[in-house]
From TrEMBL:
This is PKD domain-containing protein. PROSITE patterns: PKD (PS50093), PROKAR_LIPOPROTEIN (PS51257). SUPFAM superfamilies: PKD domain. InterPro entries: Ig-like_fold (IPR013783), PKD/Chitinase_dom (IPR022409), PKD_dom (IPR000601), PKD_dom_sf (IPR035986). Residues 56-108 form the PKD domain.
């Protein structure tokens, strides 16, 4: 049964509205106070829950319900658990200006059922806690205070988290905050000292530098403070305290978003009023509660036991990785693999889709590509607005080097005491997060020139091919960024298609082996050189091999020019091995492998199949005479008018590096791989 109470209309006489406004207009006449009139009625749920309705219609209609609630629109519902007088106002706007109508209402009786709300009980201790519930800053644990970007998708201090007791002496840790359900009273005990944002010092006489950053000041909070709490639809609950009171750290405001409220923990977010790009965070615990001590960091493993090879990284010559769209795949914490600092177990892939579609591509020729796929996740250090936005916004800024690009990488195998390592090198080279580098984080662009960033591979699952990498941004093992990568479902994504015009240069183009590790070798899969030379750069030892020219013409002609010398092996029949004049082949069974002109054909990539280059003619080959489809020559001569076909593993139009491979087993067990670059001499 509803409580019987009366509404006192204190701003009488009422202005009678002569006509209802059926449609809002944007004419030049400003609204009047009468235009802002409103009515209200109790709801079926409780006489203390009122439904307010504006009489008119305007393009903007703002409410202040006098209980801490605000809102917009023609109708709004307000909740008033406690008896008392509340001032409600409606402000309406049109092109001519605005007008406000204000009315006081009286709630005659408290509705205990409205006070018995879980969020009220957790904050105050409930109706039985006659002395209220007292909270203090959780000083003894890391992350009790911090700052991050003020963006809708972030509810954690991802830019900075204080370590345990870091702000001792500031006044932050000695202050106490008591919330009472009775009368919604709030008591702030400062013990004489409070902690302030440096921009607020002028508002506190006697403010001084406490030696731990920002300012401290002598301060005694006033009596008769109150608290209010509203729960806006689709948003975090908002806790406010009245003028003169605040919680933990004063940054100009007195309204706090409740990120998390539990029996023994309250985690609050509040906007810096001097710099609204920043959001501050504090964590509080009840007075007398002692949280479990933070676990000691796990000792580093004596044997990391991570079985991960370069072949796992590059796959069949080119492997595309993406962030795993799951909780724990992207985060920062106090140890390898942890995300307890951010996002603390949350899955942010839905909030940041432009981050989780990024491609990280490793090629067997030692190149590493970052492909943002047209969008990036902006943050302040990039110099662009926060959140997902077009990648082109980076162009022309100091952060342009962090856009899509090609770099180099190297791989260091693991040992019994060391994790495997991936190092990417180049101006703006990174994996997963541009901000993080070894020993620090960028606060602003540009990245350092030709920087190398090394990541440890701390876990790899051969069955799922999930790879977890970690980077220490402190150099003392106290803060790590951790990322879990998985192979892209479509391994052709981001791949540039080699065309016959690329191969021939539109007329004639000469190619030669790239003088680098991984450019010439044999292994158990395309792109691998682990059988030979296993990561070594042999271009200096076999210069006569790395100066050979492989020439393609748009008329279908293919030529081999050894440039006067060859790297001979026993199957060629020259009688000796190593670099020697090409003329030594003349008159031998291997003569057809010398300089000559043949034919070629090209099949573009299609339906997931690699592009293919075929050379045809007696002795026709690319890079290595010995290798043909399904076998290797043990002696000359080559078969007459033979066709040898090579798979195109990768082509990079920026560097013009072309990676090809040939299966010498017909079973996929042994491959020769070659990386070619145009001859620019």
């Amino acid at each position: 049964m509803k409580n019987i109470f009366k509404y006192l209309w204190l701003l009488l006489p009422l202005v009678v509205v002569m006509a209802c406004v059926e449609e809002y207009s944007l004419d030049g006449a400003p609204p009047t106070e009468a235009d802002a009139n409103f009515t209200f009625t109790p709801t079926a749920e409780s006489d203390n829950i009122l439904r307010f309705t504006a009489d008119g219609d305007f393009f903007m209609m703002n409410w202040d319900l006098g209980n801490g609630q605000t809102g917009e629109g023609k109708t709004i519902t307000g909740t008033y658990p406690l008896a008392g007088t509340y001032t409600v106002s409606l402000t309406v706007f049109n092109s001519g200006g605005s007008a406000t109508f204000t009315r006081d209402i009286v709630i005659e009786q408290t509705d205990p059922l409205l006070l018995d709300r879980p969020i009220f009980n957790l904050l105050t201790g409930g109706v039985d806690a006659v002395e209220g519930k007292t909270w203090k800053i959780d000083a003894g644990r890391a992350g009790h205070f911090g700052v991050g970007p003020n963006i809708p998708t972030s509810n954690f201090p991802e830019w900075y988290q204080a370590v345990a007791n870091e702000k001792a002496g500031s006044g932050m840790y000695t202050d106490r905050y008591t919330f009472f359900l009775d009368g919604f009273r709030f008591v702030m005990e400062t013990n004489g000292l409070v902690y302030l944002n440096s921009a607020q010092g002028s508002n506190f006489p006697g403010a001084f530098d406490p030696g731990v950053g920002d300012l401290s000041a002598p301060y005694e909070a006033p009596d008769n403070l109150r608290w209010s709490l509203v729960e806006p639809e689709g948003q975090l609950p908002e806790l406010s305290v009245t003028q003169g009171g605040f919680l933990g750290y004063f940054a100009g405001g007195r309204t706090y978003q409740i990120v998390r409220l539990e029996e023994n923990e309250m985690f609050l977010r509040f906007v810096d009023q001097a710099n609204t790009d920043l959001a501050w965070y504090i964590r509080l615990i009840p007075e007398g509660f002692e949280p479990d001590p933070e676990p000691e960091p796990e000792p580093e493993p004596v044997n990391p036991d991570v079985s991960f090879t370069q072949s796992d990284l590059v796959g069949n010559g080119r492997k595309v990785w993406v962030l795993k769209p799951a909780a724990g795949a992207f985060g920062v914490g106090p140890s390898r693999g942890s995300d307890s600092f951010f996002p603390n177990g949350d899955d942010i892939s839905g909030d940041r889709p432009c981050l989780f579609n990024d491609l990280f591509i490793f090629n067997s020729n030692g190149t590493y590509e970052y492909n943002a796929q047209g969008d990036v996740y902006g943050e302040a250090y990039l110099g662009i607005p926060d959140g997902c936005q077009p990648e082109e916004d980076l162009i022309g800024t100091a952060a342009e080097a962090w856009a899509s690009g090609s770099h180099q990488f190297s791989f260091t195998p693991g040992t019994p005491t060391e994790f495997p390592k991936i190092t990417v090198t180049g101006t703006g080279a990174f994996i997963a997060l541009p901000k993080a580098f070894n020993g620090g984080e960028y606060s602003a662009a540009p990245p350092r020139a030709n920087e190398s960033v090394t990541y440890e591979v701390i876990a790899y699952d051969e069955a799922t091919e999930e790879m977890t990498i970690s980077i220490d941004i402190t150099n003392d093992g106290s803060v790590f960024w951790n990322f879990t990568l998985i192979p892209a479902a479509d391994q052709s994504v981001g791949q540039e298609a080699l065309t016959v015009a690329d191969l021939t240069g539109g007329g004639e183009r000469a190619w030669k082996l790239k003088p680098a590790a991984g450019a010439f070798g044999v292994g158990p899969r395309p792109g691998s050189d682990e059988f030979f030379p296993n990561g070594n750069n042999i271009s200096g030892e076999r210069d006569c091999l790395f100066n050979d020219l492989f020439i393609f013409k748009s008329n279908g002609e293919y030529s081999y020019d050894p440039q006067g010398d060859i790297f001979a092996e026993s199957y060629m029949g020259t009688g000796s091995e190593g670099c020697q004049p090409a003329s030594n082949l003349v008159g031998t069974a291997g003569e057809a492998w010398g300089a000559g002109t043949h034919e070629f054909s090209f099949s573009p990539a299609s339906g997931g199949a690699n592009a293919k280059i075929s050379v045809t003619g007696t002795g026709a080959f690319i890079a290595l005479p010995k290798a043909y489809n399904g076998g290797e020559y043990s002696a000359g001569p080559p078969r007459t008018n033979e066709t040898v076909t090579y798979d195109v593993l990768n082509y990079n139009s920026s560097t013009q590096e072309l990676t090809i491979a040939i299966d010498i087993t017909d079973s996929g067990a042994v491959w020769w791989t070659f990386v070619l670059v145009p001859d620019n001499d």
